[in-house]
Amino acid sequence: MTIPLQRGIIYGPVNSRRLGRSLGINLLPLSLKICTFNCVYCQYGWTRVHHQKLADEDLWPKMKTVVETVKQALQTLQPAPAYLTFSGNGEPSLHPAFVQLVEEVIHLRNLYAASARTAILSNSTTIFNKSIREAIARLDVPIMKLDCGDEKCFQTYNRPSQGITLAAIVRGLSEMKNVTIQSLFSEGAEGNFYSENLTAWIEQLKKISPRQVQIYTLDRGYPSDQIFPVTKEKLLELRDRLAQENIRAEVFTRER
Ligand code: SF4
Predict the structure, then answer these.
(1) Which of 8, 103, 159, 199 qualifies as a FRET site for 245, CA 20 to 30 Å off?
(2) pLDDT tens digit string along 72-109?
(3) 10 Å Cβ neighbour count for 126?
(4) Is the CB of 93 under 6 A from ligand 1?
(5) 152 with 200: CB under 8 angstroms?
(6) For ligand 1, what atom is nearest to the CA of residue 184?
């Protein structure tokens, strides 16, 4: 069972597995998910809208509305959240005013919640765009998706929109400093936790040199019936394999 879309521009603060008390900022429309991926594990279900509506300005929350909403939340929330996190109903960096919104949110954080850190959960597909890459780099904690090391896995697992390649994503991520990589692993016929992919994924990580890799598995609902969670033991083994390559990684699982 997948979960419903976020119904507001802000949500939470939620107790995030990876960030602690985090105020989500949803720059996506409230009525549909827009994403350049169609991951087999997406908690919001299958992607119905890839690119075709991106140019329709009326779909997106207006910049002024986003700024006012975040401002009001920060003025009233006590205590302040630990993180202000761009996330929500799809890929946040697709918002037409994303670059300016990053500046606005950093400004609001400085004014009203100086102790909070800014973050993004991104699928990395816009990272080839220099201005978006620079905006993401302005955030304290850019958390960028890389689930696959080879193109075959990428096409089956993340199901990108036409024209998006794994090679371009890895190139863009390699140009970022201090990036955190997020990788969600699943077993099964449509999963990514198989030997060839793991080896290729580690090779890609070596090119990127991330500050940290966050490893986790299925937790919420997901649309594919061809995947299932990876055990914590296997994820810890993978973490140890990364340590041998001097790549710092952490496993996040919810205790059951
Ligand atoms: S990138 Fe995120 S929002 Fe987009 S399909 Fe994958 S899990 Fe869903």
Answers:
(1) 159
(2) 999 999 899 999 999 999 999 999 999 999 999 999 99
(3) 21
(4) no
(5) no
(6) 7
CA 118, CA 141: separation in Å to the nearest integer?
Answer: 6
Distance CA 248, CA 75 (A): 36
Residue nearest to atom 8 of ligand 1 (CA): 42
Under 8 Å between Cβ of 114 and 59: no
Res 131: pLDDT:
96
pTM over 0.85: yes
Cα-Cα-Cα-Cα dihedral sign, residues 217, 191, 208, 22: negative
3-21 burial, b at 16+ Cβ within 10 Å, e below that, comes to eebbeebbbbbbebebbeb
The CA distance from 182 to 249, in Å, is 10
Tokens matching residue 193:
């936790």
**Is-contact 185 193, C-beta < 8 A?**
yes
CA–centroid distance, 75 to ligand 1, in Å, is 30
For the chain, list the domains and their CATH numbers: 10-252 (3.20.20.70)
